[in-house]
Amino acid sequence: MTDIALADLPLRDDLRGRTPYGAPQLNVPIRLNTNENSYPVPDEVTAAMADALGAQLRDLNRYPDRDAVALRADLARYLSARHGRHLAAAQVWAANGSNEVLQQLLQAFGGAGRTALGFTPAYSMHPLIALATGTGWLDGPRAADFGIDTDAAVALIEQRRPEVVFVCSPNNPTGTAVSLETLDAIAAAAPGMVVVDEAYAEFARPGTPTALELLDRYPRLVVTRTMSKAFALAGARVGYLAAAPAVVDALQLVRLPYHLSALTQAVARAALAHSDALLATVDALKTERDRIVTELTAMGLRVAASDANFVLFGGFAGNDQKRVWQALLDDGVLVRDVGLPGWLRVSAGTPVETDAFLTALRSVHPAGA
Ligand code: PMP
């Protein structure tokens, strides 16, 4: 084989020297670093999925439904039932994880000569997808409590007029949710598309708003969701959005034909038919999240308010989070260093996983230390 180094390939200049997205995938006993759902898919659901897959296998000689019509209808039904307002299948689009939905959004509404704005720290893939799609990126600020200052956000949007504004709520990696007033003000000020990434919506505490409530008023608003977290289907790769039907029309201009395999569509539909069984773990995960918040606060650590299935905690001096991260890993517990000096992020998992994490952390960081 001819050997060639990456640097010697005719790579795009803007990709030179970049590193790929890379949450470590380490084989350790307690993995709490990618906000997965720790609970396996229940047997009754795997049985339904196996039946659904089996029914597809003979027909794999044919391409799948390019527009995933039945799946989108099921997703629209799920969202409508959950939020008590009707959403039509034409308002819903699905792809391989919400990452692909986000990529399609930037392919359609970003691109060369255009800019996307996000409020940092937020989901690290937003700027990476911007880069990959040739979209300029603008970092907006967050307050010390990781909230978004509405006036500052509106002023920045009015001044820079980005074609796309990302708001992540509940926000990864901080866990903090954005108020309806702030979402409303951002949507009113934005000259282009506003994408509210609600990957963790199902874990929010009662009363936490969803941008779905604003869809009727803002035709350029998009709400993205995923089956990777609450539905415990990260491995299946199913994400979706709700927006005006015209937004779905726009995405059909950039999506690859047959992007969502027949197997993926079948698994997702079987999962949605059993959404109660799959979502049964959400309350248990929220309980563990709240336990982590309480315990870490009692240990004298700083903890960000969380409406997600993870907790951002810190108060470590300087870059000491790197030492804590390594010490936890040495104890078999993998958490996430999200690159925020002094902070680490831990996913809420099973009670056993929480116990292991707390025990390891106590030995690394004795209370009051
Ligand atoms: N948005 C946010 C905020 C996330 O944290 C993630 C996954 N970590 C995603 C989107 C992408 O998830 P997926 O592609 O699995 O739907």
From TrEMBL:
Q: Tell me which domain of life the UniProt entry assigns to the organism this sequence originates from.
A: Bacteria
Instruction: Tell me one GO biological process term.
Output: L-histidine biosynthetic process
EC numbers listed for it are 2.6.1.9
Q: Which cofactor does it need?
A: pyridoxal 5'-phosphate
Q: What pathway is this protein said to act in by its record?
A: Amino-acid biosynthesis; L-histidine biosynthesis; L-histidine from 5-phospho-alpha-D-ribose 1-diphosphate: step 7/9
Q: Which SUPFAM superfamilies match?
A: PLP-dependent transferases
Q: List modified residues, type N6-(pyridoxal phosphate)lysine.
A: 229
Q: What class of enzyme is it?
A: transferase
Question: What is a single molecular function from GO for this protein?
Answer: histidinol-phosphate transaminase activity
Name the reaction it catalyses: L-histidinol phosphate + 2-oxoglutarate = 3-(imidazol-4-yl)-2-oxopropyl phosphate + L-glutamate
- Per the database record, which ranges form the Aminotransferase class I/classII large domain? 30-361
Pfam families documented for this protein = Aminotran_1_2
Q: Does the keyword Amino-acid biosynthesis apply?
A: yes
Q: Which UniProt keywords apply?
A: Amino-acid biosynthesis, Aminotransferase, Histidine biosynthesis, Pyridoxal phosphate, Transferase
Q: Which CDD domains match?
A: AAT_like (cd00609)
Cite the NCBIfam families for this sequence: hisC (TIGR01141), PRK03317.1 (NF002877)
- Outline the subunit composition: Homodimer.
Which HAMAP family does the record match to this protein?
Answer: HisC_aminotrans_2
Spell out the protein name for this chain. Histidinol-phosphate aminotransferase
